[in-house]
């Protein structure tokens, strides 16, 4: 009887201790994520400009959004950016991770790979704004040295989105590579050794061993990077400010302009809710298609 009582008391004590440790994180989640999200959903059904009380307008903001050509163009630009960013970043990060795992595991090299990620997006944007400047940037000096004409990377409608995508690839690829590298560490070395004994090439081992067993980690990384890519803002704000001719007016930048440029907080909230729904749907589909919660490791 006393043993059962002490066991019950111990469980209650563990529960209280767990609640104490969880409380700060839960408080931060409620104050900085849950409450703003609920408030944003409410404001999406109102007309609000900070100067007057919010006025309930029902679905008017959503009707306006559906009929807003700039919204759809911003969504299209965002999707183009996401495809470029995710495609180049994932392939590059996977290649770097495999090279780190198969050729060297030097902590110094990992630190060098991660260095760009330690820089803020604003600083990275300013640095690349100078590098890619059409007249004075060292990037165009290299282009000229190769015998080519100067390229208006950030001032031409054709080049602007790919340039911004590559800037963010440069900054995030090291972090993504280290996440994949961590996943590669879970793959037993004896699988590669057995494949080598059977005469398998590096490419065959990559296709038949690395990719299948890395799938859960790769799926989670893809979900994280897609969500982050849809939320691109600071790089655009620093380098192109949505130009030229709205060619880089991604959805987050358009939402920011509606809220803090034109004080249309209700309409901006409606677009934010739409983005939340789109990201939730994409995440759900990715999770189901990639079977992120399952592993092929025994």
UniProtKB/TrEMBL annotation:
Swiss-Prot/TrEMBL keywords: Cell membrane, Membrane, Transmembrane, Transmembrane helix, Transport
Coiled-coil boundaries: none
Record's subcellular location: Cell membrane
Residues spanning the membrane: 21-45, 79-100, 112-131, 159-182, 213-233, 253-285
All residue ranges annotated as the ABC transmembrane type-1 domain in the record: 75-286
Pfam families hit by this protein: BPD_transp_1
Organism, scientific name: Streptomyces rochei
Family, per entry: Belongs to the binding-protein-dependent transport system permease family.
This protein's name: Carbohydrate ABC transporter permease
Bilayer topology term: Multi-pass membrane protein
PANTHER family the UniProt entry points to: ABC TRANSPORTER PERMEASE PROTEIN, DIACETYLCHITOBIOSE UPTAKE SYSTEM PERMEASE PROTEIN NGCF
Transmembrane is among the record's keywords: yes
InterPro entries: ABC_transporter_permease, MetI-like, MetI-like_sf
